[in-house]
Amino acid sequence: MPLSWNEIKSRALAFSKHWADASNEDGEGKPFLIAFFEIFGITNKRIASFEHAVKKYGGGAGYVDLFWPGILLVEMKSRGKNLDRAHTQAMDYFPGIAERDLPRFVLVCDFARFRLFDLVEGATYEFPLEELYKNVRLFGFIAGYQTQVIKPQDPINIKAAERMGRLHDQLRAIGYEGRPLELYLVRMLFCLFAEDTGIFEKRQFQDYIELRTGVDGADLAHHLSTLFYVLNTPQDKRLKNLDEHLAAFPYINGKLFADMLPPASFDAAMRESLLDGVASENGK
User: Fold this and answer.
1) Less Cβ crowding at N or C end of the chain, within 10 Å?
2) Chain centre distance of CA 69
């Protein structure tokens, strides 16, 4: 469950006091961002990567200070540095990021000032560190408060369904047919929409596929079967040494994941179809 807004505001006030004198990007940038996420109850193990390598616009390599795929890109600067330049630098990273991982939000910060860009709404918000507690609701996407209502006619959902239809055809083409195919797709569609309804955490299913499976798709069926088994198993019945990424998935009652299915087989194109469908539902 997300922290209450009162708790988040209290943490934001304490954060602002603690970091009031911070100024150096190199020495204090990473600890500052770790502490910032902790305001919203997100620990270092659950947030995105630091110093994420990407190709910059015009060529050459760059390193994003913090990158949460599909959600947030952060560019830190030392106190008093130009935030317009920081924003330009942040946007220069976009050509080197896969389309499905492009973030909705860009945050630039020089410790004393925050400037948040919502690229979907086209809105920009700026405030000083001491007013962070007044503006914490802008970061509801970190805390877990911003969820979407599933609307079947939403263009994003139509696009996702079309891409899952592509995967349906790819599986049928290799001979995976009938009830197993239909149930397989229903399970994946459930996982696709589960993030919107708050059943899964943001990008939980997409990250599991991206981080746990190879790009050639050869091991995707194994990992999906393992996930389906875990989803059908109450937490107190699961193996004690279960991978923490798998262990974080909730128990889904209702027998959707109860039946054993024949093993499927995937390739790189089919893995991309699945990831494109998930990314479409996540707003890409």
Assistant:
1) N
2) 5
- Cα 161 to its chain centre, rounded Å, is 20
Query: With contact defined as beta carbons under 8 Å apart, do 142 and 200 qualify?
Result: no
| Location of structure tokens 């991309």 | 272
C-alpha 116/C-alpha 72 separation (Å) is 10
Domain residue ranges in the chain: 5-143, 155-281
Q: Per-residue pLDDT tens, the chain, 284 aa: give them.
A: 568 888 999 999 999 999 999 999 888 999 999 999 999 988 755 566 776 767 666 566 678 888 988 889 999 999 999 999 999 989 988 888 888 788 889 999 999 999 999 998 889 999 999 999 999 989 988 887 654 433 444 444 555 556 678 888 999 999 999 989 989 988 888 888 887 677 888 778 888 898 889 999 999 999 999 999 999 999 899 999 988 888 889 999 878 899 999 989 999 999 988 888 776 555 54
Instruction: Indicate the helix (H) or strand (E) that contains 167.
Output: helix 155-173
Q: Which two tokens stand for residue 133?
A: 């507690």
Helix or strand (DSSP H, E) at 74: strand 72-76
Question: Position 17: which residue type?
Answer: K
Check: CB of residue 78 under 8 Å from CB of residue 60.
Answer: no
What does the alpha-carbon distance between residue 51 and residue 54 come to, in Å, rounded to a whole number?
9
